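seq:
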Amino acid sequence: MRRRRRRGAVAGERGSAAIEVALWAPAIVLALLAIYWTGRYVTAEFAVSEVARNAARAVSIAPDAATAQANAMTAAQESLASQDLRCLSLIVDVDVSGFATPLGLPANARVDVSCTVDDSDLVWPGIPGNPTLTGDAVSPLDAYRSR
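struct:
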């Protein structure tokens, strides 16, 4: 009687593909999680930079320093809300020294934003749970605004 040999299977290698998949699956899942986390981190960095730009623009059109600081915080909070970014702590530091510049001379407003991002849903060993991201922006003040 002749023994039939199965095609594609070498004797003693039955089930080896399942074992290979079982060994590679955790590495693939970890790689996908790392890509996902990196994408969220980079997106949050861009969002914080955009928040700083929006706050600096709000400062540059304000008539005085007190209004500028209030406008910067409001613009930062609205920008965070529109980008669906949750900050555990938000610090908006506004340099309003340009408002002391005489009319007709160029001056700048600088805004530094610091946001501790809530990444509690991505807690993983070795990955920081709540990174603090910073962004800054400079916007020219209107040289002929009323003061």
